[in-house]
From TrEMBL, chain A:
This is Elongation factor 1-gamma. Residues 82-210 form the GST C-terminal domain. It comes from the Eukaryota. One of its GO terms (molecular function) is translation elongation factor activity. InterPro entries: EF-GSTs, EF1B_G_C, EF1B_G_C_sf, Glutathione-S-Trfase_C-like, Glutathione-S-Trfase_C_sf, Glutathione_S-Trfase, Glutathione_S-Trfase_N, GST_C.
UniProtKB/TrEMBL annotation, chain B:
Residues 48-168 form the GST C-terminal domain. SUPFAM superfamilies: GST C-terminal domain-like. One of its GO terms (biological process) is positive regulation of DNA damage response, signal transduction by p53 class mediator. It comes from Ridgeia piscesae. InterPro entries: AIMP3/p18_C (IPR053837), Arc1-like_N (IPR053836), EEF1E1 (IPR042450), Glutathione-S-Trfase_C-like (IPR010987), Glutathione-S-Trfase_C_sf (IPR036282). GO terms for cellular component: aminoacyl-tRNA synthetase multienzyme complex; cytoplasm; nucleus. This is GST C-terminal domain-containing protein. Gene3D superfamilies: 1.20.1050.10.
Amino acid sequence: MQTLYTYPESFRAYKAQIAAQYSGAKLDVPEFKLGVTNKTEEFLKKFPLGKVPAYESKDGVLLFESNAIAYYLATDAMRGANKADAAAVQQWISFGDSEVVPGSCTWVYPCLGIMQYNKQNTERAKTEIKRALGVLNDVLLTRTYLVGERISLADICLCCNLLALYQMVLDPEFRQPYGNVNRWFTTLVNQPQFKTVIGEVKLCEKMAQFDAKKYQDLHGQSKPEKKKPEKKAEKPKPEKPKAAVADEPPAEKPSKDPFAALPEGTFVMDDWKKVYSNEDTKTVAMPYFWKNFDKENYSIWYSVYKYPEDLKMIFMSCNLISGMFQRLDRMRKHAFGSAIVFGENNNSTISGIWIWRGHELAFELSPDLQIDYESYDWKKLDADSPETKKMVDEYFEWEGEFGGKKFNQGKIFK
Amino acid sequence: MADYGKELSAVASYFNVKCGQISFTGNEKVVCMKTQTGTVKGLATISRHLAQNSSKQKCLGTCPLDQALVSQWLEYRVLQVDRCSREDDLHRVLKELNGYLSDRTYFAGPYLTLADLSLYYGLHRTFVKLSFQEKEKYIHLSRWFNQIQHENNARQKFSAIQFLKTPIYQ
């Protein structure tokens, strides 16, 4: 008897289980409790990392790492019929691990509540996945399967790596440009050897989003440290009434909203920020912006950092921006901005697109807002010109040509 | 005219069954095969008969939809592919098949069926004559054709056709 230790529905264990279906190897999958079974002394003695899936044969072969287990359980033909094919199989397995899995986890795990959502990371993951799918799509244009003319370990491993994406987030619109990959994927998951292991696969209809409630449930009690970032977002609401009593009166007197004198207009900053934060930027948020933007009472500005030669490491530029954002807290209610670092370490520039209430340079409204603004050149943009539209779209989407500058990192003031 | 005799013997060999004596009867030269119990007429019927008597029943489809698709494409093979008398008829057929295969790996279901074999044999004489540029134009059909000719024991005495893995004309 051969034993595979895994928790249920692990895409990594699937690789091994499907390979076993093809070779006819009988696998025993005993009951397994993550964090319990794999922490026992007996388990750790065999598999020092305590990671699953892990494999044990009755004659003492012990293996961890799903690709190795799948390799061991597969037929000779599935490992590649000759040297070149065998190498190609390895190539695609590595491609899956390095080009697909990280992006997939970053994108999918927040939807399952396993990880906190971070818009920037998720958008980057989407770009990575698009790139990987594009590469695969070209390869599969002339090939039915990845290597040779048979289903190989390459197909099994990569298919399992893509499984969660296809089930959760690759909605019809997103996957539409990758017809060859879709064809290949559906053919694979409908093979009896795949179906026995993973069951019926239903392709995603609607892109899953971050599941805050599930995240809370999963992380709520057991891991107090991890709860912190979450708390920040959650707490202000219930606490506000109390805090308001203590804080607001003193704060109120000297401040007076610097924007109070300016007409309110029809553009609701809060609503826009909500849309921008929660919806897909390109397909939902930007159309919303152009539909609702009130050019009578709001203006669009372009900022460029005056001293790019002083910028050293990228993270320092990012800190510079975050610091400025903090110091501009008082205009947060009436402004929105995207500041982007272009280039690389020791050769970078910072520029940004801002919108705020009023047509004058907002920083002049209050001395509190004037610490950073003189380090930037500010240019007011014509809200009606197509050039402005293109720039605003690029800066808010963090995607585009940017006049030839290489996007490195962006930050959003909201 | 497609060589039905060669094709049927290949089909029989693929299914590992005995091919009966082949003859052509009547004015229309309908293909017939002698069996132990009588005579079976017509390419699609004979192919189906050979598959049915084999251990590869799966090749006729494993669910009603796949079975219907197999029938549909066997009929298409005889009525459309084999009756292309003019060059532009043929290209219409190739275009249609290419479009159908753009999101499918095989003609019926996610596995090889008799429909694939029949269309492969039926299109072989056409593919022999296609240039690389034309093969690239029907890129999904070419992808499929190459897949079928590599299936175990499918090609047999039919010549191997070369395909490029990298598009070069677009």
